[in-house]
Each structure stands twice: as C-alpha cells, then as structure tokens.
Write the structure tokens for this entry.
Amino acid sequence: MNLFFYNNRKKIRAFSILLLLLGAILAFLNWGIEPEETIAGFLVGLGFGILLLSFNLKKE
C-alpha cells in the first residue's frame, strides 16, 4: 500500500493543493455565512494535512 502512495505522491500533492485552494476560495466567497465557512475550514485543514503527509512519503 505504501508503494501505491509513493508512486502517486505528485497526484496526492496536487489534490491537497486543490483542496487548499478550493477551501480558501469558498471561504472568501461566502464570508459571514456560517455553514459554508465551516466547510471551507474543513477543506483547508484536510488539504493542509494531506500535503504535510505527502512530504513524508518514503519508498519502503
């Protein structure tokens, strides 16, 4: 399973950056509307977490 993530690490990084940008844009466009801000914060946090984990992938 680790080999699968290692081979697709660039796609994982691109997906996490996409989540970060999507969350930031959603937060900017829906400023002051509570449910959308929470969803945007979740997307940014998830994208940032996946991005940090993708930098630590090593081939085993």
